[in-house]
Amino acid sequence: MYNTPEKITKLENKQIFVFGSNTKGNHAGGAARDALGWGAEKGIGEGMKGQTYAFPTLNNELKKRSADELKLSRDLLFQCANNNKDKIFLLTKVGCGIAGFKEEEVKNLFDIYTPANIWLPEEWEARKYVFTGEIDNKACEPLRRVVRLEDDLVGGWVGYNAYLSQKGGCFVYDHSQMYGSSEMYDSSEMHDSSEMHGSSRMYDSSQMYGSSQMHGSSRMYGSSQMYDSSQMHDFSRMYDSSRMYGSSRMYDYSRMYYSSRLEDNGRVGENQVILGRLGVDITGGQNLAHSLVAQTFHAPVKNKIILYKRVNKVKKGVYRSLYDGNFLYRDGKVAIVKNPDTSNKPCSSGLHFSYPQYLQDGDTLIAAEINIKDIITVQKGKVRCKKARIIGEVKLQNKTKQNK
What we know:
Blueprint: E1 15-22, H1 30-35, E2 47-49, E3 52-58, H2 67-83, E4 88-91, H3 103-107, E5 118-119, E6 129-136, E7 143-148, E8 153-159, E9 163-164, E10 171-172, E11 177-178, E12 183-184, E13 189-190, E14 195-196, E15 201-202, E16 207-208, E17 213-214, E18 219-220, E19 225-226, E20 231-232, E21 237-238, E22 243-244, E23 249-250, E24 255-256, E25 261-262, E26 267-268, E27 273-274, E28 277-278, H4 288-296, E29 304-315, E30 318-320, E31 328-330, E32 334-336, E33 351-353, E34 364-371, E35 375-379, E36 382-385, E37 387-394
Parallel strand pairs: 1-3, 1-4, 4-5, 8-11, 9-12, 10-13, 11-14, 12-15, 13-16, 14-17, 15-18, 16-19, 17-20, 18-21, 19-22, 20-23, 21-24, 22-25, 23-26, 24-27, 25-28
Antiparallel strand pairs: 2-3, 6-7, 7-8, 29-30, 29-34, 30-31, 32-37, 33-36, 34-37, 35-36
């Protein structure tokens, strides 16, 4: 059990006995008198001494303190617990004996925001987890072990500045570890020997397995999952039911959506967006054909690829750019951009094409044939190129005709 025992007869190392006192520090009866044997001092009515913490519920005249005064003392206790994260504070039913408070009055002071290194009486517990008191000082920073209270399941490790939400079903299982200022919310889960570092975050029902790692400001959303020794870095994001396997890596502002898969030695970075399956390194323009398939769902044939864009129709066979009113596309003609930006910026100058559903602006969808050698970048799920031959208008059927 990881709650304050009904009767405390001994204290383990680094356990602190939190007892009800008065501001004068008389410590004449009840738990206050017992506390004298563990380091409490007469004349000190509030704060930590030895292996004790005096929580005043009565004033100097031995009368009940007000609700606001009790809240101030509670906040001081919380501050002390947060400043002594290597200790476990055993909060007794302060004020419910000689002081004469109703149990419900004091219980309501301690909710799910009570620091997890403060153990509460079982009847007062509203939290999902607490810390066991076990500290791992062998890691790159001190870690505290968590235990889930509903079934006393001992879980993984959480750093002093990491945050595991008391709401939802999120939990750190097995030997998984939260470092830095990493945070977990909702129903996210860490398993096996997975690790979170930096200011990484997990949301929704995302999950980590194996020895997978999150670094930097990376984020996981939806039902995304990481396996094996895969890693996320920088500002990378996983959404929906995307998956990472093997020794794959995500860097920079890369994104994964839908049921995409990054596996084996797959690498994505810059502003690359993975919509399909990828198992190779596409950073820095490498493996262009694989990059096109993973980011646009389209594959090149004989060094050429057909992609699409939205435009406004001027007349039959002539279309106006949505971004430059003076730039026209014509059926059968090659559209060329003069002096395009040849850097790896995704939204810089050049012609932009992607899969048919990429954008819904404009009144017309056109198709174009692009030579692989004219592609500048493939990022954010689209191609930026120097020139393209316009094939023509694409008319999509909105309704399926019924057979009569």
